[in-house]
Design brief:
about 290 residues, six-stranded antiparallel beta sheet
């Protein structure tokens, strides 16, 4: 199959790989010794199912995708970098113990995918401790809702930043993130000029502040082809059955109505149903289970 992720000796003789995986997919893990060496290999797999959290205090590593000099850990206090985090002990930073280099191409740290389907008026808030030279060097923040088109929502442009205390940054990203299922944010270091350096990004206490859309939880509609605001009503259905189940009543009074005449007639979802409920097909049929059997 296609090679998705590979890492080697990232921690002494221990290799570590962090990635975001799609629910329902099968992934094969291959572990090999150096130069065909053989022996006992210990494999530890850890996972986090908290996919809907919108607040990151960085007390623990979020394991976001990092490039180049981006890293997680305690601030160093060196080269004008902060000597302490805003809260807790850790930050996300670019070259936490030094300066960013000259002639640097863009390097990113990118959040996991955030499901903001039922959220509006979205603002990105974080604490910033930034050093970047205006005119010549660049620091920015970008947002996407499709994984391919990135929108710059903040940039230093011609302004020089030499923060000597933590600053709260609030950015309105509602035009891009409201009611979107696949939102990501990335902080960018670079490009930089061939002369002059500074200490770059330090980030702490990241939060997506939103107004959550009220959801109808008695009788919910589902349309696999729908992509707009989702409240569970017939005109604003959920896109996923498991979302409807999440909002169903515990006493079995809820009815989930699936629109069978949708242009996209089926979906593959894996989850546990731990409450009584009734599922109805509207203008079609419903089959639960593995259709490969």
């Amino acid at each position: 199959g296609e090679l998705l992720f590979c890492n080697d000796d990232t921690n002494g003789l221990q290799s570590e790989v962090y990635s975001y995986l799609d629910e329902g997919q099968i992934y094969l893990i291959r572990v090999a010794g150096y130069s065909s060496a053989s022996g006992i290999i210990n494999l530890t797999v850890q996972y986090d199912l908290d996919g809907n959290g919108l607040s990151f205090d960085l007390d623990s590593n979020p394991h976001w995708l990092m490039e180049g000099g981006w890293s997680f850990g305690p601030p160093s206090g060196q080269f004008s970098n902060p000597s302490s985090a805003y809260t807790g002990s850790n930050v996300l930073g670019y070259e936490r113990d030094g300066y960013y280099p000259n002639s640097l191409t863009k390097q990113y740290i990118t959040t996991r995918v955030l499901d903001l389907t039922n959220h509006e008026e979205v603002e990105l808030e974080y604490m910033r401790y930034l050093g970047v030279d205006g005119y010549y060097d660049n620091a920015s923040v970008q947002v996407t809702n499709d994984g391919s088109t990135w929108h710059t929502v903040w940039a230093n442009a011609t302004t020089t930043y030499d923060d000597n205390f933590w600053v709260k940054e609030s950015i309105d990203i509602s035009s891009i993130a409201d009611e979107q299922e696949t939102v990501q944010v990335r902080w960018v270091m670079g490009d930089t000029s061939s002369s002059g350096v500074n200490f770059g990004w330090n980030i702490d206490d990241i939060e997506f502040v939103t107004d959550e859309i009220e959801v109808i939880i008695i009788d919910s509609w589902v349309d696999f082809d729908y992509g707009g605001t989702s409240t569970g009503e017939e005109d604003f259905p959920f896109k996923h059955v498991m979302t409807a189940i999440q909002y169903a009543e515990e006493d079995g009074s809820s009815v989930i109505k699936i629109k069978g005449d949708s242009p996209q007639p089926d979906t593959t979802e894996i989850g546990m149903i731990s409450k009584p409920l009734r599922i109805e097909a509207i203008n079609g049929t419903v089959r639960l289970g593995d259709d490969s059997e």
